[in-house]
Each structure stands twice: as C-alpha cells, then as structure tokens.
Amino acid sequence: MISSKQKIVVQTDLYRCGKGFVIAAIWLAAIQAFFAILNLILGHIGWSSFGSDLRGIFSSWSFSSWSFVLSFVPFFYFLITPYSTFKWTIQNGISRKTMWRSQMLSAVIITLVQKVLIVLFEVLADGHPAEAFIVNSSVSTWQGILFELLLLFEATMTAMAIGYFFSLLNRKWKVIVAIGGPILAAFCIYYLTLLLIKLGFFQFIGSNWSIDLSGQAAKTAIIVTLVVSAIVWTLLMMLVSRISAKHMQLRRD
Q: What is the dihedral of CA 13, 16, 17, 18, to 10 degrees?
C-alpha cells in the first residue's frame, strides 16, 4: 500500500512520461504528413497516393518508429528530470526518501507499460493479431521478452543514477564531468588495452581459451552471465541514485 505522497509522485511521473511519448509520436506523424503534403505540392504524387501516405501514418513503419521512440522516452525522462522532481517534491513537503522510493515504483510501472506497448507495436508492425501472438508464442519468446524487460529497467536505472548524480553538481561541474568523464574513460580504456597487448594477454587468450559457442552449455552460460551482469549493474545504479538522492540540495546555478 503506497502513501498519498508516493501516489502523487508516481502519478506525476506517469503523466509526464506518457506526455513525452505522445509528443514524440505526434512529431513523427507530423513529419510524415509534412513530407506527404510537400510531395503533393511539388507534384511528385497524386491525390490517391497522398491518401495512401496519410494512411501510412498508422502503417507498420509508423508502429516500428513508435516502438523505437518508446524505447528511449523513459530513459531521457529519468535522465533530465530528477532535479526538477526534487524541487517540487521538497516544496510540497515530500522527503528525499519518499521521493526516491516513489520514483523506483514509477520506474517499475513505466518499464512494464513501456514493454507492453513495445510488444504491441511490434505485433502491429508485423501484421499479426495480438491474440495469435499470445497463443502461438513459444517459451523462448517469453524468455526473450523478460530479458528485454530487464534491459529496459537497467537502462532506466542507469539514466536515473546519472540524473540524480548530475543533480548534485552545479552547471560548471556538469559541463566538466560531461566532457571530461567520457574523455578520461576513453584514455583509460585505450591505455589499459595497450598494457594488455604488451603483456600478451590477448595472445594468451587466443591460443589457450577455445570455447564452442554453438554448444547448449556455452549458450546457457552466456545467457546466465548476461542476466547476472544486468542485475548487478541495475542494483549498483539503484544504489548510486539512492545515495545521490539522499544528498540532494536546492541550489542556485
């Protein structure tokens, strides 16, 4: 049972994230309609083709585009809104702990809705009725859907952790970290790779470690490794976001 304050945060997150997707979908439809009108004006198509282009807004291509956009909307939402969410929750007497817990619940609900809509758009894009998909899908299909659901939640938690962490920084340090962080990571990866090459690590792996990726045991091991890695990373990002949320303060940029 969630409290009234948690319900306010969850409802706001659902409304804002849903609004973001609707705006993105409208932009996609508007762009397609614009090019259809432009082709009609230039005389490249006739009225019959123009009508077909407008109906194409709800074609398989559009459903695929909506599915693609929907994959990124929650990521960008939780990436850019943590500080604004913190400001209005503090002003409404909602604690940092309640805010963070509410956003965790929001992330779970949004990810579930996101995946259901993605599957629905993919089914519509393939031209198969949803009923047939549900009845005829194999166990491996549902396992794939669950793994994709985990990856979507992992991406959302990563975005939230980055958003909360950046909320601790002023504008100057945001620029420094945003530019310097990737550059520093690239240098570290580059010099680590050079070091491993000099130590003969890759030659050793190539000559002494042979794995049959076609075997069922190897495939199972890879899947288990990916799932465990995703879960560990998700928990780490949740911890980062929790610590960052705990130390958030109102600031003047």
A: 120
